[in-house]
Amino acid sequence: MRKIHFKIKRFDGNKEWYQDYQLAYEKGKTILWALTSIREQFDPTLVFTSACRHAICGSCGVKVNGSSYLACKTSLDEVLDTFKTDYLTFEPMGSFEVIKDLAVAWEPKMEKMEKVKPWLIPSVEGDVEGGFIQSEEDFHHIASPTDCILCGICASECNQLAVNDGTYLDPFILNRAYRFAVDSRDGSPEEHIRPVIENELWKCMHCMQCATSCPKGIPLTEQVAFLRQESIRMGEVNNQGAKHAFAFVNDVRTKGRLNETMLPIKTDGLFKTATTKVPFALRMIKKGKINPFHMPKAVEGIKGVQEIYKYAEEVENR
Ligand code: FES
């Protein structure tokens, strides 16, 4: 009989350890079924969270073989097929404080989320008595971000949070800021966006892990792009991220490619580049990764590239 082998990370508040369990394979079951079966059949002390079992409450996020899933929505067959193994390791979500076994704490995340004022700030012109009626078209702007169930999968998969959980905001918090900033009934979008700018908005690496793992398919990285555009529109251009974006855009506009030697200087200035990046650059030169004397010429077809820019600007100004 086919057996599925589970290794579950345990934590009792003091020490951590991994514990092994086995279940007979059953077709068409979910990850949550496996956790529930282990608890019912072998170990009533195993702690994990779940409630709705229908991908609504967002409480059952868990890591399986290093990737995060919503346990009630993801079939066991899917992960067995993905990892091509009958050996699965379950761990609590990343970037969360662990309470016990697979249960994580949400309070610190909720406190962090308050920074972006995740509520509607009614516009003074709004028709309060009439209930702030919204057109169908305007509703479509918030339909997708409103799908967020706060499961935390995006945060668990976020590579920036993994190394920088200080001020950087979790993707679901950025989603909340976006959701209210684009709401036609909100009278103060900047109150949602400014805290995002102040909390390292430009540190997102666009690895796409948050967007590809979101069980609701929310385009989280597109929202980051929107928030960055808005920050520039708000005049927040004197920072490393915005300067890098402008340097990038101008390089491609004039040459059709990047000038890797000048990019850090245009982003950080000569002094900062010289004092912080020279040792790294020297190592790259030594390994033949960059040639500091190579000044790239414009690519063949640069006129076409510039036409694209011109067209994009026309569309934006329409
Ligand atoms: S149990 Fe509610 S989302 Fe999984």
Strand and helix layout:
Elements: E1 3-11, E2 16-24, H1 31-41, E3 61-64, E4 67-70, H2 76-83, E5 87-91, E6 98-100, E7 103-104, H3 107-113, H4 136-146, H5 153-157, H6 159-163, H7 171-181, H8 189-198, H9 209-213, H10 220-233, H11 240-255, H12 263-276, H13 278-286, H14 302-317
Parallel strand pairs: 1-5
Antiparallel strand pairs: 1-2, 3-4, 3-5, 6-7
The structure holds FE2/S2 (inorganic) cluster.
FE2/S2 (inorganic) cluster (FES) binds at residues 50-53, 55-60, 70, 72.
Describe this structure in words.
26% of the residues are buried. Helix 4 runs antiparallel to helix 7 (171-181), helix 7 packs antiparallel against helix 8 and helix 8 packs across helix 10. This protein has three domains: 3-104, Ubiquitin-like (UB roll), CATH 3.10.20; 106-233, Fumarate Reductase Iron-sulfur Protein, Chain B, domain 2; 240-317, no CATH class. The strands form two sheets. Strands 2-1-5-3-4 form a five-stranded mixed beta sheet. A two-stranded antiparallel sheet has the order 6-7. The model has no long low-confidence stretch (mean pLDDT 94). Helices cover 45% and strands 11% of the residues. It is built from 14 helices and seven strands. The chain has 318 residues and is an alpha+beta fold. It is globular, with a radius of gyration of 24 Å. The structure holds FE2/S2 (inorganic) cluster.
